[in-house]
Design brief:
This protein is 41% helix and 15% strand. By secondary structure, it is an alpha/beta fold. The chain has two domains: 1-44 and 91-133 and 184-267, TPP-binding domain (Rossmann fold, 3-Layer(aba) Sandwich), CATH 3.40.50.1220; 45-88 and 135-176, SIR2/SIRT2 'Small Domain' (2-Layer Sandwich). The strands form two sheets. It has a six-stranded parallel sheet with strand order 3-2-1-7-8-9, with helices on both faces. A three-stranded antiparallel sheet has the order 5-4-6. Helix 10 links the parallel strand 7 (200-204) and strand 8 (226-230). Helix 1 packs across helix 11 (249-265), helix 6 packs parallel to helix 11 and helix 9 packs parallel to helix 10 (216-222). The termini are far apart. The mean pLDDT is 93.
């Protein structure tokens, strides 16, 4: 896990937020890239930090899930434990600030590593959101690819099915990317294309260490985009971005959205 760095002063953060807000107003294609650091402010624990899911459980790899009933039961036990936090999670001020940018016509797309569905819950249409690691609020059959809701799968588990199966006999699994599972090709290609075509690429709450998601800011930077990062800990792109803000996502994004709204309304 990346080590948190000292936060910048409030004056420095505000000044840098002003730069980002001005760039958002000046550019046509704005892509926001989000990681776990935005959702932790909604009470969603990340995976790798102390107290996170992998601090308490051993991850179930995809090939284990597909080959072992015991592994599938263990996987679903972990997912049910995760639900204790997820079911109460609501979009926070950071999610809502990004949604405000969309409502103001300043957002091309959100690329997210998160699986919690909070960007959709904030009001951003699903077609504007690229989920690189899937979405845990839906469940997919690994054989026939049928989708069901999380609530349907949860009811199957509560009724006694420790590792629910589809009517076709296939294994149900949350529609997320597990260790050892192939990344979704269409979503990854679309994210790479939008990253390469954007004018401004804003990273929020990601250490940019997980591949291939972490390649996206590089595609943007190499194509001449303005690269800005809002994150509490260091990233491999800290020395390559034009603006780096070391602070919590919610307050900074709210400030940026306020400034954009003011600039647009004042002409």
């Amino acid at each position: 896990m990346a080590k948190q760095k000292p936060r910048q002063s409030a004056v420095e953060t505000t000044a840098k937020a002003q730069v980002i807000a001005q760039k958002i107003c000046e550019t046509q294609k704005v892509v926001v890239f989000t990681g776990a650091g935005i959702s932790t402010e909604s009470g969603v624990p990340d995976y790798r930090s102390q107290g996170g899911l992998w601090d308490r459980f051993t991850p179930v790899y995809f090939d284990e899930f597909m080959s072992s009933e015991a592994a599938r039961i263990r996987y679903w036990e972990q997912r049910m434990d995760m639900e204790k936090k997820l079911k109460h999670a609501q979009p926070n001020t950071g999610h809502m600030a990004i949604a405000r940018l969309y409502a103001m016509g300043r957002l091309t797309a959100v690329i997210t590593q998160n699986i919690d569905g909070l960007h959709q819950a904030s009001g951003i249409p699903g077609e504007r959101i690229i989920e690189l690691h899937g979405n845990t609020r839906r469940v997919r059959c690994m054989t026939c690819r049928t989708l069901i809701s999380w609530e349907t799968a949860e009811n199957m588990i509560l009724a006694g099915s420790n590792a629910p199966r589809c009517d076709c006999g296939g294994y149900y699994k949350p529609d997320t990317i597990s260790f050892g599972q192939a990344m979704p090709h269409k979503e990854t290609q679309r994210a790479a294309r939008l990253s390469s075509q954007c004018d401004l690429f804003l990273v929020v709450g990601s250490t940019l260490l997980v591949q291939p998601a972490a390649l996206m800011p590089g595609y943007a930077r190499d194509s001449g985009a303005f690269l800005a990062i809002i994150n509490l800990s260091s990233t491999p792109y800290d020395g390559l971005c034009q603006v780096l803000i070391r602070d919590k996502a919610g307050p900074v994004l709210s400030d940026i959205a306020d400034q954009v709204q003011h600039k647009l309304s004042s002409g």
